[in-house]
UniProtKB/TrEMBL annotation:
InterPro entries: Cys_rich_dom, HdrB/HdrD_reductase. It comes from Candidatus Magnetaquiglobus chichijimensis. Keywords: Oxidoreductase. Coiled coil: none annotated. The keyword Oxidoreductase applies. This is 8-methylmenaquinol:fumarate reductase membrane anchor subunit.
Amino acid sequence: MKEYTFFPGCSSEHNASAANMENSVQSMCQMLGIKLNEIDDWNCCSASIGYAGGGQLPRMALSARNFALAQKQRGNTDLVATCAACWLAMRETNERIEEESHIKQNLNTALAEAGLSYDGHIKTRHMVEVLIEDVGWETLKSKVTKPLKGLKVAGYVGCQTNRPFGVCGDSFENPQYLDRMIEATGATAVPFPMKVACCGGALMFSEPEKSCVLTKQILQSAVDNGAEVIVTPCPVCQLNLEVYQGLINKTLGTNFNIPVVYYSQLFVLAWGGKWEDAALHQQVIPAEPLRRFA
């Protein structure tokens, strides 16, 4: 059994907006023989609101505390995040600690107030990287017992798994990993030119009229290209694309009703898992196109 230190992130907590991602990821990992050891007493990583004016040091100190706790509890075991924003915030913090001595010193001064310290050396990884690099494409395909044949899926990567770090050396402008994941389940990845367009992220909370326009363009592209469902690795993207379809329909005169799910939900279903194992019962917009595979 492979083991990783795990940072679930705020949105994945019980009854939070991405609880379906957390539940389906746990099911997926059980089916793969992966154990996720959650950091005890973890805190918010500071994304995305941490960029709004809280200052650089406080923002990174939140992530540094998680690293310090992880190192104390699990040594230098790789730390895995499922949320794109969490992964981005923690990876930035970790790389700057390793590369900028004054940042490391200042953060450790802050950590010392809580009796903690962090010397670097923990690798920060997105769950997608674990699936591709550690599990591998052949294993992901070999576990399929109920191919999602005929299902047309738009793979929406979004911004944060793609820039600035990218995933597994894939293209920044036209990444293929999510399309390959879709195809690995037996489904069809439809052409989707908006796959890395921004949905507005946290702008949806402060200036929804602007973010709704961005999100509408993404939804329209998926529908125009024949998608029955949209798949994403990002909980903020999933929230914006799914929950706000009603507001977009009301304000922009559209008629969207397309389910937005996570790659983990597709894998669990294709690997023979139950509807509840894939947390598909937790969708806001019912994932009816997937019912035929349940």
